[in-house]
Write a structure and sequence with these properties.
alpha/beta
């Protein structure tokens, strides 16, 4: 299962659609609180988090460390966050291919910064 966190409903739905079309089960939230409060967290292989769901880079590092599983961080922050644990950064805008490839990569072998 892939956890998707994105405040913008349309963007969240497009992420869900792209992942589901490739056979992934998706659990989506509009806020970062879903990362820590997810009742089925044992089923989640990784999270896809849009940068608009976070207040700051510091909160990103704290949230991702507590989550403890690979995170794909969708960011247009410049410069890119360099100290996010267990995180792969995808720079926006991007098409669906890089997202799907990144999810497959982190599920298959872990993430790196």
């Amino acid at each position: 299962m892939v956890l998707v966190i994105a405040p913008d409903r349309d963007f969240r739905r497009s992420l869900e659609f792209a992942l589901e079309a490739e056979g992934f089960r998706v659990f989506a939230h509009d806020g970062i609180d879903g990362l820590l409060a997810l009742p089925r967290s044992g089923e989640v292989a990784c999270a896809v988090v849009d940068d608009t769901a976070l207040e700051s880079r510091r909160s990103a590092a704290e949230e991702f460390m507590r989550f403890g599983k690979p995170v794909l961080f969708l960011s247009d922050w410049k410069p890119l966050p360099l100290d996010l644990p267990n995180t792969v950064v995808l720079t926006k805008p991007f098409l669906g291919g890089p997202l799907i490839d990144a999810v497959r990569s982190v599920i298959g072998g872990g993430a790196s910064t």
